[in-house]
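# nightly structure sweep
# worker-07 picked up a monomer target from the shared queue
# config: single-sequence mode, recycle default, output format = structure tokens
# input follows
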Amino acid sequence: MTIEVRVPQLPESVADATLVAWHKKPGDAVLRDENLVDLETDKVVLEVPAPAAGVLKEIKFADGTTVTSGQILAVIEDGASAGPGASAPAVMAAAGGAVSTAKQALQDASKGDQGKLSPAAKRVVEENQVDPKSVSGSGRDGRVSKSDVVNYLSSKAASASAPAPTPAPAPAPTPAPAAKAPGQFVPAPSARGARADQHVPMTRLRARIAERMVQAQATQALLTSFNEVDLKAVNELRARYKDQFEKQNGVKLGFMSFFVKACALALKEFPSVNASVEGSDIVYHEYFDIGVAVSTDRGLIVPIVRDADLLSFADIEKSVANFAARARAGAITMEELTGGTFTITNGGVFGSLLSTPIVNAPQSAILGMHKIQDRPVVIDGQVLVRPMMYIALTYDHRIIDGREAVQFLVRVKQCLEDPARMVLGL
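# output follows
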């Protein structure tokens, strides 16, 4: 009996998906619930498991094909076994060969190194038929990132394009150098040799990020206001209770929980910052779902901390840590990325001192955190060195006035410089 493998039902906000890579080829034995193929949507990578054990009889679509919900991806012969002499059924001509034997061999060879390959790096390795053992990893514990593979391919392409050495001809008489006009610049020959370019298609996530950013710039009246925060009180609080907090809750006490709580309190006071625009209507959200931007190998994604105003510091820290780990492992779900009324992004972890973040449409505002840096400030007539951070609020000026934006930042500043306010609700 044959069993059809179909594209799973995609969320309403996702129209289609791109077939990234097959993990099996026609004629291979498959186990029930074994991952057959990866599908990339605008936000996450979905795994399509085998509905039954048997032999993969036919693949309908090749890598890189765009598919929609319910389409048949492959056919499995239920209960069949793949013998050593069995010939693999032909793949449809439209599939263009699906997965080649060489590519499958590379996948098998890379299984031992999967722990050192990021998901994005693994995809580039398989697409370009690269032996993962030949790529040096720059990440922690030798982990290979996508940029490591791209750099390896670039150097390999440069070496391949370099001309082979030829016997040196008999030396010819050296002509006298041409007279150089006064002031004329003669560039030195390039020491780089071959100068190769590599064209890599955008991933679905990167293309979606580009689309959303351009959309926000084109449809919203964006403006950014700034303030600075003295984090001395937060640092002292973390230093005093960090060990006890981690022992009791199993998670470290970071800065993000303070910022999420401060923003949740400020959003309650300034509902327009928590609102969005639908057509000619302003939608005021009576809940506070705060997105926390997470950087991954595939790009920036924004998991949502639901009802952030009702969560404790420990709950927020657990949620953020869990989101970050699963996002970088490619295990985040679509539901966890959908919605959100406000976003926080932290460029300070990369060393950013000041920036103007772009609103995550259809939201109307985003808070940018930055690097904490000791700076001299005047307090009560004295010049003191304090751990200072610039914070930035980019907002849609169509529904948020400058007064509200500035007061929102001041409220966040007050909560962070006196954390007791967040505990007492003041």
